[in-house]
Amino acid sequence: MSSAPLPASPEGVSGPQHVAIIMDGNGRWAKARGLPRVAGHRRGADAVRRVIRGAGELGIPVLTLFAFSTENWTRPADEVSDLMGLLRHYLRNELEELGRNGARLRVIGDRGRLARDIVSDIADAERRTHANTRIDVNVCINYGSRDEIIQACRSLAGKVAAGQLSADRIDETLFERELLTAGLPDPDLLIRTSGEQRISNFLLWQCAYAELVFVDTLWPDFGKEHLELAIAEFRRRERRYGGVGS
Ligand code: IPE
Ligand code: IPE
Ligand code: MG
User: Fold this and answer.
1) Does the CB atom of residue 22 touch ligand 2 within 6 A?
2) Given this structure, which CATH class describes domain 18-145+186-233?
3) I want to staple 187 with a disulfide (CB 3.0 to 4.6 A). Which of 18, 48, 161, 223 is the partner?
4) DSSP secondary structure string, 10-41?
């Protein structure tokens, strides 16, 4: 498969190295067509396939997708069950496509509340895509950033209480190692679809300096061309990190 590099970036601006996406708008996509919400989620899964392929072709090394939040359990039981069904289907049927795209899958989130067969499908999918090297694809399932931060604090507090760590040695590096994203670079571009302009408990620590791009497109309609537009917007931004810029 040909891998077209990203179009030349202005003045040596590089990246993004890590694109994170809040995939939103499936329900509204379905509602606009008089369809049940699950139809929107199904089409959302097609968009996931397109965007993984597109991101690989664009040379993005890391892609992180928000698929199910710790707050999404509050949705009607039918919808949660439909989403879990789609997740099962995805994990069992998408491995070849991930392989074709050179995508290494990693699932980020608290697996404790997921059904046992899903936990085992996740482990299997991670193992079977582990050797792929073109793009790292992280899918956040039962993920909540506050929960992740609390777990990290608990773990560090436990080490301090056990006398393995002194509290004044805790710094950003040590803290990051306790997060579920340990080892990943921070996202430099965060995209949210569907016109909503909020973070909804996604990667709060990691997105401290991400450029935020909000697009009106509903997730089931999102594709490689939308990703390219968001990247073009990212490259127009001046990243200052608290400094005065150029
Ligand atoms: C995103 O679409 C998918 C999940 C959050 C699981 P939504 O289901 O939130 O769609 P809207 O926001 O209701 O349109
Ligand atoms: C955020 O979308 C979670 C995911 C995309 C998985 P939501 O649709 O759940 O967020 P809110 O409720 O609009 O904040
Ligand atoms: Mg939504």
Assistant:
1) yes
2) alpha beta
3) 18
4) GGG----SEEEEE---HHHHHHHTT--HHHHH
